[in-house]
Amino acid sequence: MIKIENLVHKYTIWKDENTKSEKTVLDGISLDIPSGQFVAILGPNGSGKSTLARHLNVLLLPDEGKVWIDGKDTQAKERLYEIRSRVGMVFQNPDNQIIGTSVEEDVAFGPENKNVEPEKIRKIVEDVLRKVRLWEKRKTPPSKLSGGQKQRLATADALAGIPECLVLDEPTAMLDPSSRKEVINIVKELNQKEGMTIILITHHTDEVVDADRIILMKDGKIIGDDTPKKIFADHSLLKSAKMDIPPVVELSMRLKKQNIGLDEPVLHEQEMIRKITELYRSKCGGWKDAAR
Hints:
39% of the residues lie in helices and 23% in strands. By secondary structure, the chain is α/β, with parallel strands linked by helices. It is found in: Cell membrane.
């Protein structure tokens, strides 16, 4: 789906009217992301995550190196529309993407500008609003939505283009914990039920425990690329990238240090409850006590 080779991106910094310098934001990034994979990109502010995201939808072009989307070079101008149709983008602030006077009008805007037939537009609007659980709000003005609902609407806007890949650039940064969970659950469903390629860019480590793969960035470079269990097991790597450890993972690692019986990081609360229950049963030897 996505192939990146030695991607370099630089920004020009003007110190004054006559003096400028260059800052390398992406420094030799190489990646292969197959179709249907759920990839999370983690890293502190300034690590290059958002700049990388913008290369995937041709909002930026490489200074050096190459980016291919479905085998198409992003620097081929004649392929621009085709690439952007394949990769949908959801940004941090949903208000920057919402322009309609109602939820359904907002979602319909994109297909209408592509001259899609009205009957097909109606089907697209209903389909994507049901996916993001906003169908009942279709007549509601976007200004009346909560922050989480607005982000779900922005996701629906991206889905209305029927992309094969969805890139979400810190979509939960401005949301409360409950709204964050709503958005992440929808992202997981799109990957698991629709087979959509998901690239989630975030600094919230607890949002990525269900990803197929975590890419860890620092100072414009990739410093880690592996499964969540292996990434979260490497405390020194997380510390070097200034990333927090999810609470459940941290608890499991502390129990491991105490030789309580956990051989690898536990990523989910229910899995932790099950493992602790099993350990308790094995030590108590009785089901009645363990159930208590």
